[in-house]
Amino acid sequence: MVLSCSDSRVPIELLFDVGFGDLFVIRNAGNACTEGSLASIEYGLEALNISLLVVLGHQGCGAVAAACADHVSLSPSLSQLVLHIRQGLVKGAVPLDPDLAVRRHPVLTAQQLIGSSQLVQDRVNSGALVIEPACYTFDHGKIEWMGSTSTA
Ligand SMILES: [Zn+2]
User: Fold this and answer.
1) Residue 56 C-alpha to ligand 1 middle, in angstroms?
2) Out of 18, 38, 39, 51, which could bridge 22 as a Cys pair, Cβ 3.0 to 4.6 Å?
3) Residue 111 reports pLDDT greater than 90
4) How many CB atoms lie within 10 A of CB 127?
5) Mean pLDDT confidence for 70-89
């Protein structure tokens, strides 16, 4: 199961060298922990008994860049999503570097998924689910793995 950004430059099946129908993929702008993504992940756990979740961010993510910017004009729904991403990233009023933020955001999203769902938390605690935050970089065409996220 993969939670990724909607960005078309991140072709999930090609990146993981699998066929269509092999992965359970949830996408939204900025691979964020939203009610919708969380509900889809819970479906993947309960109905499909999936044991691995990759939270995949990417270099040059527009949603994360917007979250790092001081002032951007966005629609109400997109503003809400970007604000959610920003709240996870910002510590005080420290300016955010988008290149660092795209690496940090998948880790924060993984932590938010665990903190927002008893089912996700229970599966991680029992070892039935491993969450792997990662970041895809276009420059090198590689996935940088950030280390498994646990509740500890
Ligand atoms: Zn993106």
Assistant:
1) 9
2) 18
3) yes
4) 9
5) 88
